[in-house]
Amino acid sequence: MDWLQIFNNTLASILSPSTLAYALAALGLAIHFGFGGLINMGVAAFMAIGAYGYAISILTFGFPWWGGALVGLVGAAVFALILGIPTLRLRGDYLAIATIAAAEVVRLLFMTTTFADVTGSAGGLGGYHASFRASNPFPEGTYGFGPWTYNETDLWVRVMGLMTLAFATLLVFMLTRSPWGRVMKGIREDEDAIRSLGKNVFSYKMQSLVLGGVIMAAGGIVYALPSAVNPGVYVTSLTFFVWTALLLGGAATVFGPLLGSLVFWVIQTFLTNFLSGLTESGILDMSSSQAGTLRFVLVGVALMLLVVFMPQGFLGDKKELTFVR
Amino acid sequence: MTDTRTPVVLVDDVHAGYLPGVNILNGATLTAYQGELIGIIGPNGAGKSTLLKAIFGQVQIRGGSISLDGEDITGLKAEKLVGKGVGFIPQTSNVFPSLTIEENFEMGAFQKPSLTAERIEFVMSIFPDLAKGAGLKKRAGGLSGGERQMVAMGRALMMDPKVLLLDEPSAGLSPVRQDEAFLRVSEINKAGVTCIMVEQNARRCLQICDRGYVLDQGRDAHTATGRELLNDPKVAELYLGTLGA
Amino acid sequence: MSADITPPVSRPKSTGLHIGEPAAGVKKVDPIIVASGVKRTFGGLTAVDVEHLEIPRGAITALIGPNGAGKTTLFNLLTGFDKPDAGSWSYDGKDLANVPAHKVARMGLIRTFQLTKALGRLSVMDNMKLGQTGQTGERFWHSLIPALWRKQDREIEQRADELLVKFKLDKKRDDLAAGMSGGQKKLLEMARALMTSPTLVMLDEPMAGVNPALTQSLLDHILDLKDEGMTVLFVEHDMHMVRHIADWVVVMAEGRVVAEGAPDQVMRDPAVIDAYLGAHQELDLGVVTGRVAIIDADPTTDAEASASVDAAVIEAEASAELDAEKENDK
Fold first, then answer.
1. Which residues of C touch A320 (CB under 8 A)?
2. Considering chain C, what is the average pLDDT of its residues?
């Protein structure tokens, strides 16, 4: 058992693009669920639209990287509008069902061979990094120390991811402390009371849906930034992982999603490496793919226990539980 | 003169509420002996319905206790209470609109299907009007308010309960139907069912009940026999003189 | 209850609000709400069936009726919280059909709820601030730039503080609304409603569950609304309160308006008394059913008549009414 390797990898995951991407996605979900009370079971779809929007704009239409990013974000906003217009006037469960369906539709659209020359179908998309790397302000070299040692490209990706996360967090922080945030809090408490005071509840919920969706798309872009856009990633389990990260940290808080994603990824990485180490050294009698599956099982169990025993997460206020209506 | 009988229902200093930290009942007390017709009157918001719901296990009880024939039933779930002989008729949403009258009655005897036939006979003897027209095959959702009230009462009677909890049986009814409703409750009570009735039509309620409780701000403001309360000038002024006789 | 409290300092009642003889559906000199043919059924049940109703401007109108009469449903229909099956109604001359609840509120028609909707997990001050309409900071893009709304927020806070002092809730300004008593929550709901600068305030059972000590205060606040030029429509069961402050009374029973008029006159109307007390108030049902001896009869009833009447007579009347209804439905 190479403990040094295990710990090295685990610590490195704190700043991995995956963690940053999850933090963004969880932040977006916090806006949907924590602040708006909307149940979104299609987080993966929003992230996919961000990632594919980015990659396709660069590869097929020759956009620069920031143009691609813009397309990804706008795409998510449009998707949110399409989703919300029919469902937000109905009971909350309808949005949840609609998002599950929409997520599948999006995934299949990206998978179908009909659009293979644009989406890459099952093979996904790669090789769109030139534009992004060309804008890298950091000169060639090695940066950082210990487990956090990067070359200039890896550094650029992480800096970009962190800046996006910081910007999004600041945005959400400002919003929650503004009169807009006050109205959202009121809507979560009692929609009818807010309506009786002259506020357009539908409009506010839609704004929450769009904003959260755009931030999720940003997460998808950050995820795709260093490597490739693989359709096998944007599946339902991704949605549930983001939910786990959100609930772990605290659904109705600004920093909860960040903390939750961090803890989630650190533990995930640790488990992957640990289980791997166990199987390799023969202590655990199973193949490495089985160990991978075991990891998912453990995450699932953790999510169930979390929802039952600590639904407010680390930073949440038990009294503010949004489950209890 | 202290009563040495075990009360059928004993509510002892109960504190209860729906939302955390907010209590609707603040030390409510009630005693009902076998065969009595108990009336609960008082202003809206006093906690009358909440008291019934507390007995039926539908409100969180935060203090005090409730017992049925000496057995502690505090916080026991409704389905258990039905099995123990407690029937409840809520004020609204008290029939299954998509089911026929007969099916509603069958649902009432769900825990003891063998009783169904004989109980339907009993219920129809109390509510003969339900047999009119298409009779028991009528869809409950299409009935008028008064007929629904009868179906709701009938359904609660299907389990041959020893205690019946009624939440404002006269609400929403025409004047003559209100009187009829009170006569029905009296009839059911005479057949041996202990009845605890919350009412807004205080005068009618007190005319037929054996003992009454006046609830205000979640606790008993006054309790005496029905007649004593009817003749009490203070009670009359506050709760009975609704239209300034 | 309120009978023990001395009546409020005399404020003159408004008279001459109606045109012609007071009766259900009578026209008003200056109506602020005009409703016609409003019908709402739930399944087979007719909850509201109002042929014609006009609410007088600048006066305090009480909407009374036994439980289940359709008063809250009517409120919901008039304010856009529910859609009627048929009917038309207007507010200040503007047609309200299909206008969503929040737009109705913005037009100046504010309503409160039977079960108070004080937003529990928000502070009293936040509750008050939410009442203010036209806030720049509530718009998404503007909310991101504090400089755009800070000043307005401070002004709103000042206004809220003044109102809180008036309602004696100023000490609670930073407390969570959930920690207040039922009566205080009702006061908060009223104060919050005033933040919207309404023209018509519809109060659904403002006294229900309120400690008698606060009743007088609530009554005074409602009278203040009228003094400031607002119209008030309130649902209540407390007849003493209705007599004290209502200029006009509308009585509903079984979804219909059965009577209208000045408080004293309406409360003597036999149809109204029937709706509340049952069809035969001269009878003591205790005597009729044999539960009680004649000598113990309710003093307000006719003991002899009660003894000689058979319960079957009343049952027959109810049966006949049912048959008549079935005929009408055909």
1. 121
2. 87
Q: Is C114 near chain A, with CB under 8 Å?
A: no
* Of the partner residues C101, C120, C193, the one whose CB lies closest to the CB of residue A189: C120
Of the candidates B175, B183, B241, which has its C-beta nearest C285's C-beta? B183
**This prediction's pTM:** 0.83
Q: What dihedral angle (degrees, nearest 10) is formed by the CA atoms of C47, C49, C55, C60?
A: -30
Q: Where are the domains of chain B?
A: 1-85+162-239, 92-160
Which among B46, B47, B133 has the least Cβ separation from residue C326?
A: B133
* Pairwise CA distance, residues C28 & C52, whole Å: 11
Widest Cα–Cα separation across chain A: 67
- B115-162 per-position pLDDT tens digit: 889 999 999 988 888 888 788 898 888 888 888 889 999 999 999 999
C128/C244 same-domain check: no
User: In the structure, what pLDDT confidence band is assigned to residue A171 with cuts at 50, 70 and 90?
Assistant: very high
Residue C198: what pLDDT? 93
Report the CATH number of the A3-320 domain: 1.10.3470
pLDDT mean across residues, chain A: 87
CATH of domain B1-85+162-239: 3.40.50.300
User: E strands along B18-146, which residues?
Assistant: 25-32, 37-41, 60-68, 71-72, 86-89
pLDDT at C2 (0 to 100): 46
Domain around C18:
2-117+198-276
- In angstroms, the separation between the Cα of residue C138 and the nearest Cα of chain A is 4
**C256 shares a domain with C302:** no
Burial of residue C146 (CB within 10 Å: 0-12, 13-18, 19+) is middle
Count, residues in chain C = 330
Give the domain-ending residue among C276, C292, C307: C276
Which chain C residues are within 8 Å of A195, Cβ to Cβ?
81, 100-102, 105
* C176 interfaces chain A, CB cutoff of 8 Å: no
**In chain B, whose CA is at the least distance from the CA of C241?**
B242
Whether C189 is covered by a domain: the verdict is no
